[in-house]
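Re: your question from the hallway

Yes, I did run it. Sequences:
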Amino acid sequence: MTAVSMMVNGQHVSAEIDPRTLLVQFLREHLRLTGTHVGCDTSQCGCCVVHVNGDAIKSCTTLALTCDGAEVTTIEGLAKGDVLHPMQAAFRENHGLQCGFCTPGMIMTAVELVNRKGTNLDEHTIREELEGNLCRCTGYHNIVKAIGAGAQAMASAAE
Amino acid sequence: MTETGIGASVRRKEDFRFITGKGRYTDDINRPGQTYACFVRSPHAHATIDGIDASAALKTKGVLAVFTGDDIAADKVGGLICGWMIHSKDGSPMKAGAHPALAQGKVRYVGDHVAVVIAETWAIARDAAEKVLVHYTVLPANADTAAAAKPGAPVVHDVAPDNVVYDWSLGDKGATDAAFARAKHVTTLEIVNNRLVPNPMEPRSAVGDYDEGNESFTLYTTSQNPHVARLVLSAFIGIAPEHKLRVIAPDVGGGFGSKIFIYAEETICVWAAKKVRRPVKWTSDRSEAFLSDAHGRDHVTHAQLATDETGKILGLRVKTTANLGAYLSTFSSCVPTYLYAPLLSGQYDIPAIYAEVDGVYTNTAPVDAYRGAGRPEATFVVERLMEVAARELGRDPAEFRRQNFVTQFPHQTPVIMCYDGGDYPRALDRALELADYANIGKRKAESARKGLLRGVGISAYIEACGIAPSAAVGSLGAGVGLWESAEVRVNPVGTVEVLTGSHAHGQGHETTFAQLVSDRLGISIDNVSIVHGDTDKVQMGMGTYGSRSGAVGMSAIVKALDKIEAKAKKVAGHVLEASPDDIEFKNGKFSVKGTDKEIDFASLALQAYIAHKFSGQELEPGLKEGAFYDPTNFTFPAGVHICELEIDPQTGVVAIDKWTAVDDFGNLINPMIVEGQVHGGIAQGIGQALFEGAVYDKAGQLLTASYMDYQMPRAGDLLSYEVAVTNTPCPSNPLGIKGCGEAGAIAAPPAVVNALTDALGHEDVPMPATPQALWRAAQRAVTKAAAQ
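Structure:
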């Protein structure tokens, strides 16, 4: 067992873990933050995307130990109290989810996309940037709409 | 229409928990003292098991047990069942091979369950599973649909020495032969409907729990129909009697059919919980899902369409071989038979149809219902034939379809179905207009100038949904009735809980069902809760599949609401001192006709429970009613999808640049949700046409067992769709609903392939039409053009 500590959603956490523990296992099994999901075993589906030091990463292929000292944000840490993040609100408003399983990863990817590429995102850019996220329910139509709207809302929120 | 009533695009009530990470899926559930299961799976497609040595695994620290088929047999755990009896042409019953939850003596596909390790942690279970030594004698594999029943093919089950599960037929052979005999033209196609893997994003998962004190079991599982799971686990597999077995299907992350079935893993988790006296959890990884979830489609078909000198269709003849995999999954037998051949009339008036279907065993994963289930396969046959026939006859494909549309209702087809209503020309006209079909020639010329091949493809689909009238499916071999149940509980404060036998796994029932109640009772949807997915809470129900939850599930709620209103009027009569016959219920208020005496719904609810105003003998206190609704007919959603695309013949890369969908779903409860269902269906249909294909090699190894190898449609592969509706209310249920869940997946594949073949100028294009396949097809097109 090896000690690890990190900031998760603004709270300091530390634990003794099996060195092979993946970040997603640490979040789900140790911290019971079950909003981050596992949809595949080849880093393809993006259900497990969280932010580590501001980057969107796939927590299913990241060892928890490599995040020692890092700042991690999961879907549970996105809203401010009862106030939804604009991207969360945009997913609901635009029916950007059905079963909800890919949704946390989609939203985390989308937020980081806006942080990286700005709030004026065209459809082509959004679709290309979703390369690492699979959804089987929506056909992406409303996810693309939601991300465009969420990006605009993030711009307004930042003003 | 109110803001939250029927017809309003209400934002979904369930979304808050999903967008904040507070959903509760099966793998999010952990029980005190929980252990973890890992399955030892066959690496061979076909082999005898000569011995299993679990000693090293059992010595591993943290391993509680290793179970094999012998343990299952010793406990008399019954085999997995197939719930729909199909008879062959000679009247003999289908040949169902035994399907034990852990293999006994033989494995029949890669991924077949040989043993299970139960351990303290997930990692220990996986480590120990690798230490279980299984001695196999490998046998030749039978993995090719078309060759599965050929003489000399390896035998999968001794009960079916020729690997034929059934040879079944539907329709009038004599009449069809006669129609072909007088035909002016016959169009013939050889069609392969590619094998798919459903791939809901949430992999299957199960937690089995045993309560020693009460001798009762709880199974948390990823199910579309928890009551059916309980029935099968209880009555057939014999885990426990139904009143000692609770099945909970909490939030479920998509199903698409694959979570209807009762699988080995869920069975073993609940059985093993009693063996080890601790909860047992298993969560599939994606590789396991590819190997062991029931697959879909996989047909090889020879199809012919006969027309007269005017282009009128005279007859249709179909011979299909359907791959059912290594074992018969829960509903596998009905998918290529009664969910397939009765749809072969499409939207068309076809006087004679004859279909023959051979279901065959192979050494591949079981094949069962996947979004559309039989209806996409039928639509693909019909719509490819229509397109090719039009081309061969020199007719415009749209006009050839129009000429043959059914226009009078009810319309009895020669293959069971009686279409109750619709307006097929209207959907076609609207789709042609939205797709700017009239100017396709100009756009093709523009593409040609750029060296690109542009094509347009039409698909005019029909499906039978609202599954299904129990007597009808019973007469066709179903082992269950396909009604649905509802209970409406009005609380003393006027809030309402609806307990439904339907199950939501993405469809948004918590919103749409609440809209119905809100509309009917005149209360806020915030005061309505939908309860589903727990056999201890909800009365027996049949679950969600076959686009049935609106047409059947909501109809059951309507029936229960009718009873609520009738009872409430009696209560109101006592409270307002009037005859119940004089009570009107409108906008959430009960009033006495012609007076200003009234009481609102919440106050009435309280009166029903305090019962001060009426004798408990004459009228029972309380306001709670249940109903079971058995549909009188299938419903028949139909529509026209048009795909326009461009192929680069140099690379084989295809770009779909316009998708037009015009669907007739009857009345809509929530148009936003309906559109979302259409989008998702189209994406899966485009996936089948262009990307997805489960491929087994000759040895029965699945070559496409991860997202690295099986191409799921991604956002960048797809486009935004133009979706419209032409709704004709369904005459067969109280809400006039037809169902929308499967339409896109049914309509899309032939629209894509018709567009590809239009662009290429020949019909030789396989599914999935990958860039390599299209590049080759484009080269053949060039060769063909040069030869002309």
